[in-house]
Design goal:
single chain, 366 residues, alpha+beta, six-stranded antiparallel beta sheet, 35% helix
């Protein structure tokens, strides 16, 4: 109403209410943050008011992990995201495109099967500041570039090939083709100030709490798809699956940290191939063929309910199912001959894991 009837005092009051009430999350739940996000996104996309986006993102940027975890859920249904939601995602991750890359690469590998790019993935790749992304996250850039080159080789679409070419071999004199509806936070910081000159200091922006802000309860919980979990002691993950489902997978992006503090993500996945013989395949990014139904776990128990324990050390990936060891993979000796870098990457300490699955029910120990 304030926008339609151009009532300035009501416009100011709406912004004040947004900062003091909408951003003052009671339970710090995803739903509360999503409501605030949608209000900001629609205010900018429909009414061209950038202040709401700036205020919202300032909240999230005060804790980078909050921004990362929120984006993973916000972009979970990647193919169904509207242009407005894509632009809001870019506004949230404007200075760190690696936050966008996790859901993007997951979509390309799991949904598009590394065979093509859809309009949403091309939109984000064209909006990426490739030079900055490559400089800040060289390992992540190399992973993305290699995957995109594979897609370009099998795709028959000239537009896809051109998008990949520009990403992999960017012209140093060409900037990313950002949408006009993506808020540049550097230029709009002052827009969080009220029109009457009152500055919006940090007290106006409550912090978004995350799982790491409080000690979580220990026990079995239902896993959230595409969600990042901290590792419990000894880099161990524990799952329970409740059925044998053909060609349904459980995957995880390990966030691996080098001694110098650099971070890179590597994928491990396993999938049920045959319920009669209880055959499960797996692959380890950088160590084996990047596909299922090639390498197989050994002697997986046929029980419908399975308790999985996955332990990653600096030398091995060990998996037990219902107390039976089904994999004891040595990164140095069991990797494919042409995979030379895997053992060095996987030897790093694991900080957290993003869980990605399409089984009906997955329980995780936290």
């Amino acid at each position: 109403m304030s926008h339609v009837f151009e009532v300035s005092w009501l416009t100011k009051r709406c912004l004040k209410f947004y900062k003091s009430d909408v951003l003052n999350f009671t339970n710090n739940s995803y739903q509360e943050v999503l409501v605030a996000c949608e209000i900001a996104s629609r205010a900018h996309y429909n009414l061209k008011q950038t202040r709401y986006v700036t205020c919202f993102v300032k909240n999230l940027m005060s804790r980078d992990i909050s921004r990362k975890m929120f984006l993973q859920r916000y972009m979970a249904d990647f193919a169904e995201l509207s242009k407005r939601q894509l632009e809001m995602s870019l506004s949230m991750a404007r200075n760190d495109f690696s936050l966008i890359m996790v859901p993007l690469m997951s979509h390309l590998t799991m949904n598009l099967k590394c065979k093509n790019l859809d309009k949403n993935s091309m939109f984000l790749l064209e909006a990426c500041d490739v030079q900055k992304f490559r400089q800040d996250h060289p390992d992540n850039f190399d992973d993305a570039a290699n995957l995109l080159l594979e897609i370009s080789e099998v795709s028959e679409c000239d537009e896809v090939k051109e998008v990949v070419r520009k990403f992999v071999h960017p012209n140093s004199g060409t900037e990313a083709s950002s949408s006009e509806n993506v808020v540049d936070l550097v230029e709009t910081t002052e827009e969080c100030e009220d029109d009457d000159g009152d500055d919006s200091d940090d007290e106006d922006f409550p912090k978004v709490s995350t799982q790491t802000d409080v000690e979580p309860e220990r026990g079995w919980i239902q896993a959230v798809n595409r969600y990042t979990y901290p590792l419990i002691s000894d880099n161990t993950l524990q799952f329970i699956t409740t059925d044998n489902e053909v060609q349904k997978y459980i995957g995880m992006w390990y966030n691996l940290v080098s001694e110098e503090g650099g971070r890179v993500e590597r994928w491990f996945g396993m999938r049920c191939e045959n319920t009669t013989s209880s055959q499960w395949s797996y692959y380890i990014e950088g160590c084996t063929v990047y596909n299922y139904n090639v390498q197989f776990l050994n002697n997986v128990p046929p029980d419908k309910v399975k308790h999985w324990i996955i332990n990653k050390t600096s030398t091995h990936l060990n998996i037990a199912c219902n107390k039976v060891t089904v994999l004891n993979f040595n990164f140095a000796t069991d990797s494919d001959p042409d995979k030379t870098d895997g053992k060095h990457i996987w030897s790093r300490e694991a900080e957290s894991v993003l869980i990605h699955f399409d089984v009906k029910l997955l329980l995780i120990m936290q």
